Structures
1.
Amino acid sequence: MTYTVTDPAAVLALYDRRIRRDAVDHAPENLIERVGDVVRFTGPDWNGILWSGLDETTADAAIAAEAAHFDALGVDAEWKLYSHDRPADLAERLVAAGFVAEDEETLMVGAAAPLAVEPVLPEGVRIVDVTDTEGVALMDEAHRAAFGPGSADTRELLLRCLGQDTAALTLAMAGDVPVSAARLELYPGTGFAGLWGGGTVPGWRGRGVYRALVAHRARIAAAHGCQWLQVDAGAQSRPVLERLGFRALATTTPYIRLAARRD
């Protein structure tokens, strides 16, 4: 069956099944476990819940079990809640169990092939594929300028992406100055690829740099046989993505439970 962006319900069902419920990760340092009606992810870059199939009778016990699991590991955990997840009051149950909501984002999906066009860049700007630690340092510089002070965790994630055949790191450079940075994550066997980062420094926004990085990554994804590009879009990127043909499928909110700090 062929799914199109004009059928958002079908694409969302495909995303839920392939990326969330039946998630597979080929990195040896990551662990995906299916515990009852919960899919749990543990790794050096992220810990949390990818998917759950709960109802009013099972939700509280599952939340408590997952909270206890991550507390025992001593790590922060995120329950990645989507607007169509059940039960309908799952958000309130998470808050009652000590999870705290962060900013809502929009799950958006676009067809890769139509987006895989030649990037159009402002004069004096070029796209550079990042393959070494110097490039990661420039990406971190761009992210700090775009989003505010960065973190060591972000840098470590980017460093682990180097040399992986399921990740591509990209910079937009104006001379020697990084003006935007983004990454692509390929999810083999799913038909999906994820667009992450995409932070453009304030002085370069509205000039097509973000759109160019979308096109560049779409070309990489299409070359790897990916049908769909997925973005967890914030308020700034959503209008741009809509103009490019992405469709909003749901909203997603991180619910964070901080690890107990031991002296």
2.
Amino acid sequence: MINNQPNRKTGLLLVITGAICWGVGGTVSQKLFQQYGVSVSWLVTTRLLIAGILLLTVQYLAKDRSQILHVWKHKKTAAQLVIFGLFGMLAVQYTYMASIKLGNSAVATLLQYLAPVMIIFYLILRKQAMLKRQDMLIVSLALVGCFLLLTNGSFSQLSVPAAAIVWGVLSGAALAFYTLYAVPLLEKFDSLVVVGWAMIIGGVALSFIHPPWKIDFNLLTVEGYLYLVFVVVFGTMIAFWFYIESLQSLSPKETSLLGSLEPLAAVLTTVVWLKEPFEGFQWLGATCIIGIIVFIATTNSTDSE
């Protein structure tokens, strides 16, 4: 499955760069919210529309361009794509950004990564999987990690507002749906087509609430526009593209493991760049959640191999 050494090095560079871009993109979004007063709806709309167009452009120039329109030829596939765009892509993006604005990028990203735990519960309830000892370990780590992350070890107070926690948990649920629902679409079409159209669908839908052109552009300085470009291009389009491309030369195990750099990048940039307080027990909680990601990636890949 793994190709020659030069391709392998390229794959490692791609997945590491993509994961870091994802994590840092959330922190840069927090900067736009705090310093420039950008609204969640406007940023999500703009991010989805531009990134979706860029992804389909890559598909048109570099891959099978016929798939771009072929995905709409069958009613069932078209309906699945619309559902995925609204309740998968749009839901993930909006809830994640709302959690960042009300809390911070580090907590939002770590809460979003509770999605694997939610997927485990869903599969068990649907009787598509049996409850294993490793599942109990994952759930225990998740509960302990969340408690430490959100309370810093104190029962009397939360380290972030309750609303940020709610949006963060909803983001994890949306990511779980996104991951499960995408499978049949990705079996038929290139991922750039599926995700590109899903972004455009979500962006168009949210445009009815907050059109992308309705913003006081004088609010943004040159620095602000550079942040916006980073969020759209690097934090969304490049991050996804590089992650997918890395699978051409790396195993899913390696790609998943290196993808855990995303929450780590979000935590580090939030603490170092934005000077957000992050105390001892919170670091322990973050370690628990990142440990879940690494454990699941290793276990799943071992099972599949």
3.
Amino acid sequence: MADRVGRRTRPEVTAQAGGQTAWVKSERQLDRERRRRRADVRSGSVAAASTVLCAAVVVVVVVGSPGWPRVHETFFNWGEFTGAFPDVLRGFWLNVRIFLIAEVAILVLGLLVALARGLRTPLLFPVRALAVAYTDVFRGIPTILLVYLVGFGLPALRLQGVPESPAVLGGFALVLSYGAYVAEVFRAGIDSIHPSQRAAARSLGLSKAQSLRYVVLPQAVRRVVPPLLNDFASLQKDTALVAVLGPLEALRQAQIHSADTFNYTPYLATAVLFIALTVPMARFTDHLAARAERRRAPGGGR
């Protein structure tokens, strides 16, 4: 009996063709995997049932409310949705272009400001002080207020070379605002690198600049990718703020249609487009965060 139990709980080795052997899972291991699969199925079933129940309760409460017919006509009118969607989609591509251009500019500006804040040379103290003032000021100004100040203030100066396009001015305001936040993200990533990394790089003969470029920055950038993607998800939504300057982006197109029909369904069309762009970014951010966590775990590997 003891011999049978021992054989049943140990992995067995079976001969294969050509003299090779392969490990075969023991009955205990197979039973453990079956129980784990049953537990996963049971957990998934409970989660699905609770989700359906909660969704049904919400639908019943909303649809059964006294004002639902009016809300349905004002916000969920299918005819208004299809009528406004082409114009809203056309304006949405302007939001996408502003986002893509501003994203590159924000990364460059944020990294330069973060590096400037790390300067310790007395001669370059004014540069460091300017970087500190920039992050403090532009993180303290609400983004929509900054859009107003840049969009209407810069053209009023009548300086040569200042663009007059509302989309460009709005994008520039977003770069100033988000550049301050991204600079702090980069600075946190750089400060998170252990001093021993710099010391090891210097012991190999690298200068301070080379240590920063080849050792510190690659590790810091890899660490801050998830929070950077969160900032850019917010940037995608905040491109709608340039509507206050008048360019025909998605929100402005929705405003025009709503003003003509006194119906708010075009705003729903705008929301659907922004969600379609933001949700994949959020899931990609979660994936990167989970992968980084696995790498930090013992035995996680690369």
4.
Amino acid sequence: MIRPNQKKGLFLVITGATFWGIGGTVSQKLFQQYAIDVNWLVTIRLLIAGFLLLAVQWVRKDYSEVLAVWKNRKTAVQLIIYGIIGMLGAQYTYMASINHGNAAVATLLQYLAPVMIIIYLVIRKQTVLTRNDLLAVTLALIGCFFLLTNGYISQLSVPVIAIIWGVLSGLALAFYTLYAVPLLARYDTLVIVGWAMIIGGLALSFIHPPWQLDFTNLTLEIYLYLFFVIIFGTMIAFWFYIESLQHLSPKQTSLLGSLEPLSAVLTTVIWLNEPFGIFQWIGTACIIGMTLLVALNKDS
């Protein structure tokens, strides 16, 4: 029987993963239908979501930790690197892939990160390649082939630039995951991610200041989509996902987090009417299967 706290955890992780996936689809609509600049959206998304996550930490938990992370020089340097290369890298490459292709393919390519982590750890001799690892890599390769070609080697389902950005987003997410380990061991997750978002947003602000946009052309519909991407698709999605770890095991959270690519695919195909062939569905199943296999292989 599911305990009350488990029900809360299930609600949080399912809602968070679903919002994250849908947020990618809404971003695609903003880029391709309303010509919202990807640099501007990434900047404003990171800055607002980062401030909101730190506000949640300040109000609900230990507010002193929000500033304590900057008192150690080594930690501060690590946080800046994490914010620019990890957070900004993962967010920008993901959004660029959506901008040039679609949210479904971009999200699934980003979910190759677990395989990239496995390969990195094997090369560094920090782990031994197991049968499950080989199966995960095989599923990822088969899934990518079908997803990107729809079974036809002579043609791609999305432009090459979208694939390049998508693969880079997987690499950035792998770095984001690995580099965060020592930081998360010392500080609360909301603090690290909140500051990383702000650092990434500030860094991109030098290239594309958030106030450089013709706000007179923004309709109420565009504002509502922006609100969803920033609040529900970023801030609440991440907050709920992290909060679910208080009620579920990391394995359960990782497994249910696989709803993110599924929700991105479904909303892209159904809402935006993106063409999606049978072999692309097979590829999607392979990549989601790979993430489930990796999650199941973790300790509870």
